[in-house]
Design brief:
- By secondary structure, this protein is α/β, with parallel strands linked by helices.
- It folds into 2 domains: about 160 residues, Rossmann fold; about 30 residues, no CATH class.
- Helices cover about 35% and strands about 25% of the residues.
- Strands 1, 2, 3, 4, 5, 6, 7 and 8 form an 8-stranded mixed beta sheet that branches.
- Strand 2 and strand 3 form a beta hairpin.
- Helix 4 crosses helix 5.
- The chain is globular, with a radius of gyration of 17 Å.
- The mean pLDDT is about 95.
- Bound molecules: guanosine-5'-triphosphate and zinc ion (ZN).
- InterPro entries: GTP_cyclohydro_II (IPR032677), RibA (IPR000926), RibA-like_sf (IPR036144).
- It catalyses: GTP + 4 H2O = 2,5-diamino-6-hydroxy-4-(5-phosphoribosylamino)-pyrimidine + formate + 2 phosphate + 3 H(+).
- It comes from Lutibacter holmesii.
Amino acid sequence: MPQKETTVLVGERVKLPTKYGDFELVPFQEKKNGLEHMALVKGNFTENDTVITRIHSACATGDLFGSLKCDCGDQLIKAIQTIEENGKGAIIYLQQEGRGIGLMNKMKAYKLQENGMDTIEANLHLGFAPDERKYQIAAIILNLLHIKNIKLLTNNPDKIDGLTEHGIQVVERIPLIIKPNPFNINYLQTKKKQMGHLYEINKLAAQ
Ligand SMILES: Nc1nc2c(ncn2[C@@H]2O[C@H](COP(=O)(O)OP(=O)(O)OP(=O)(O)O)[C@@H](O)[C@H]2O)c(=O)[nH]1
Ligand SMILES: [Zn+2]
């Protein structure tokens, strides 16, 4: 499927030593809305490679502040560690805060959840779909990095479908399981039961 690669600007690829290992960072900017995404990469890729890949949606609360209300922060670290151990791979970090509804609306959704709604009911109450994300931008960025075939680190079947629709071959899914805690167990259960996320919650039960 043709990708409109000209709709995304590619910035400087720089070395990024991290506490997890040595990586490189490549920034991207969507021309139509100025949104900036990034790729944390290890190694160089050709279109014949099958690359361990994480498509990570921004979660300021989880990724930056260690929120226990979701599993995002731990998933991100586990993905980076997996790629470091493998010696090659890519994390595409997308500005899709709040499953695409943005931080202000995500906090409205959190407030509704404080008052008893689950994560899906809250989105619907605010007039959004349960998940507003699209994966075309992820596919465009992967193409720009010469990545066509991936082993995807995810529990989310919609991500696999979304990438496949846009021409990325998901050769394998690698689960990205984080042990739940008392603050995120209901959230994880809702994702499993109502959004089809792929994990056995009872094996993971929060202590
Ligand atoms: N609207 C909304 N977004 C949330 C909520 N909790 C987390 N998020 C966002 O959800 C996104 C992560 O989605 P998840 O469904 O946890 O995980 P996923 O990325 O789809 O699936 P995995 O690949 O398995 O991690 C991030 O953008 C978070 O900011 C919530 O209660 N409401
Ligand atoms: Zn999160």
